[in-house]
Each structure stands twice: as C-alpha cells, then as structure tokens.
Amino acid sequence: MKKLPFLLSAILLLAAASTASAQVRRQAAEPSRSVVLKVNVLSPFVLTASGFVEYAFAPHMSAQFGAFTTGASYKDVEFSGYGFTPEVRYYLSDTKEAPRGVYVAGYGRILNYKLTVDDKEEGKTYEASYKPIGAGIAAGNQWIFNSGISVDLFLGLGVNGGSLKVKSGTEDDFDLGFLNLVGSGVRFRPGLTVGYSF
C-alpha cells in the first residue's frame, strides 16, 4: 500500500518528462519564428532604402515597424528625407500561425521630406519641407521557409495629408508630380521584402 503513492508519483513524473521531451522535439522540428527582420527589395529602384521588423504576439496577430530613408529626384525637384510605418497585421489562416500566410493590415505613415530646386537660369535655389501623416490598409502573403528565410509580397492603399511649407521661392517652383504632396492624396504602397525570421 505504501508503494502505491510512490508508483503513482513515478508514473506522473515519467508522463511529464515524456510530454516535455515531445514538446522539445516538436519545437526542434518546427522552430517558433515570431520575429522577422526584412528589407524591401523594390525600394532601391526609387533610390530608397527601407527595412522592417515584425513581431507576432498572438496566433493571428503581429505588429510591424518600418523605416525608410530616401534621396531621389523628380524632374528638377530633389527630395531627401525619412519616414516610419507602424502596422498591425491579422493573419487569416487556420492552419498557420502568424507571421505566416495571407494577412490584412492597417498601417500609419509619418513622413519628413526636404525639397530643393536649383534654378540654373535664375541662379537661385528654392527650398521647402513636407511632413505629412497618413494611414492605409494592405493585404499580402508572407512565406517563411524552414531555413528561416522570409518572403513577403504586399500591396497597400493609403491617404497622406499635409501641406507644403516653402522656405524660399513659391509653391509653383516645385513640380511635385507623382508625389502628390500638396493636400491629401491616395497613394499605392507596393512591396516585396526578403528577410530572416527567428
């Protein structure tokens, strides 16, 4: 009779050890990858560098923070600056956990640009600044391979709002074209990122 509690304790201990061992084996076979570091490979085509860090904090939810810097030009307008993109993603799959699979997202944008125009005919330089704030929605699919390599393809649609602040010259001196900087404008946000998850 005295041996029964000892036997039960031994069985419970073995069952707990077996469960823990199985969980460790499962984690070794399918490592938990809740953090992804990545860069947008389309950004260099517009003379921009952008990177992201994403953290999955629930089975279907993640938070992502992006940052970029740019030094491009459009016609005679040179612009340089930086921006930040905070984002919350909801992953739709019932068989995969975040940050894997198809997702929808809501994001914000905080931008800071300095614009310069060199008027060679007049021998003058005009300067302005633009600091819009925006928001939008996006959808995409993120693949994470066993090696840890990630590929994220997405398309977003957002609205930026702000006003051009001219330091020298006039608003007419700045041909903003596709930037659509003055007032509010709808902007597409395409992206293809490659990164590493851990």
From TrEMBL:
UniProt-listed Pfam families: DUF3575
Lineage top rank: taxon: Bacteria
Leader sequence residues: 1-22
InterPro entries the record matches: DUF3575
Keywords for the protein's UniProt record, in alphabetical order: Signal
Keyword Signal: yes
Protein name: DUF3575 domain-containing protein
Species per Swiss-Prot/TrEMBL record: Pontibacter flavimaris
